[in-house]
Predict the structure.
Amino acid sequence: MEKKSNKFSEQQQPTTKQRPSRKLSEYGKQLSEKQKVKEMYGLREKQFRRFFAIASKSREGMPGENLLSLLERRLDNAVYRLKLSTTRAQSRQVIVHGHILVNGKKVYSPSYIVNVNDEVSLAPNVLEKTAFVEQVVDKRMNIGIKVPEWLELNKKDRKGKVLRNPVRSDVQAPIEEHLIVELYSK
C-alpha cells in the first residue's frame, strides 16, 4: 500500500505567525472597560448612553459611581441579584413575559429603576409553574450566593425588598468606572 503524499514536505509546513501583542492605548482601555460593563449588564449603546447621561446630571456623588448605582437598580439586575433567575438575560425574559411584580403591579420593562422600599416578587401564575420554580428559583436560592446588602430576600415567599440604593462597595465586579467617565467626557 502506498501512503498518500502530503501537500507539503515536513520542512515546508505552513506556520501561523502571531503578531506581537500591542500595548492598548488609553482610548482602547476606556473603550474595553465600557464594552465590558455594557456586556455585563446586557445593554445596548443607546441605553448605556442614556444611563450615563442620567448619572452625570445627578448632583450627588461621582458620575461613575452614580452610573454603577443606576445599573444595579435596574429591575433585571435586581431580579438576578435576588436569585429569582439564573442570569441577567433570563431575568430580562421573565420580566418581559410579565412574571415579575413590583409593589404588586406587573412591570414589563427590564430597565425599570427600583427605588427604596420597592417590593419585587414573582407573579402568582409563575408560582404555579412548579418546574420553573424548582429548577430555576429554588435551585439558585439554595446555592451559597449572597444577596447584596442593599436588597433583602424572603426565601419562603420568593420576594425581595430594596432596603437602600446601592453604593460602589456593593458592586463586587472589577470595574474601573473612571475610565468610562473619561471616555464620555471627551
In short: The chain has one domain: 26-168+176-184. The chain has a mean pLDDT of 84. Residues 26-168+176-184 form a domain with the Structural Genomics Hypothetical 15.5 Kd Protein In mrcA-pckA Intergenic Region; Chain A fold (CATH 3.10.290.10).
